[in-house]
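yo, Glycosyl transferase, group 2 family protein, putative is done. seq:
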Amino acid sequence: MEETMKPPKVTLVVGPRERFSYTQTSLESIYANTDYPFDLVFVDVCSPASVQTYLQEKSQEQSFSLLTTDHYISPNQARNVGLRYVLDHTDSDYVVFIENDVIVKRGWLTQLVNCAEETNATVVGPLTCIGNPAHQVIHNAGGKSYIKTEVKDGQTRRRIKQSAYLTGRAIADVSDQLQRTQCDYVEFHCMLVRRDIFSTIGLLDEGMLATREHIDFCFMVTQAGGHIYCEREAIVTTDTLGLASNKAGLMAWFGQLKLPDFKWSDLPYFMVRWSDAWDRASLDHLRQKWNLAEDKYFTKRYAGLGSRRHELLIKPVVRFLTLGKGNAWLEKRLIALERPLNHFWFNRYARRLRQAQFSKTV
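structure:
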């Protein structure tokens, strides 16, 4: 009698994106809509008391591992907390990194595993949608990202070339393009990774604090000889509390004249997570690590420091105050006022962190 092959083992590592208030909805979605067996590790980075209580109760109910930190840490640092646990305590064949604001469509994990097994892919990402209603507007369907070496006037420059597939398109309009596709990168909103790659490349780079982590990681995988796919039949949605990435979604948001969709308890982490300091440090680290020229790719992003805060905090306030009309002057003034506030907030976080670390060494 032939021995039945056991399905590959999978552990999900759930970590923070930018806020905590969607944690329950996201986690309930995973348990309700995942038909492939999995273990789960949740990395909680100082969420509010109500969320901590929910996670403690849910971890007992579903028997998942709940790991906590005593201060805010970056998404890559949180992923490494979960990854170390998986590598040390499980024999999982795959790790799935998924952020705490993602909701999933039934069949998502089965499709990711099937793609990895059938293609021998190292990394597989789903079709990631954005906004509300869920699973309708595409945020990421994979993309191109590579380093091109150019020689000009006797000088050699290394530059990132990057483009995304199908971003902003409605799923209903591109149904003929929703097949698995080999690509250069997928994003950390949700990403399945073959366990054995970490014995080659090590843990995630914690110098990537806030932005471009997925580009850096996929460069590392490709450099190690790995292959990356987007399985477009697996569908998840991120940022369901934020803006949709198409014009219709933006107009619907503005038409509602809503203030920022945050709870007060979300703001402290959000301000650190998207701080100018972490954004700038991430871009500097990426450029230096891969010996890249400070070209338009970087100058554009340096000029756009704080854009996530402006998008989700300032612009909704301006639209609300102007009854949906918008006002460029007011927006610029609020940005000018918010930036030093963000610096103050981050410096306060950094000072408290240094004090806590010093206390541990005494």
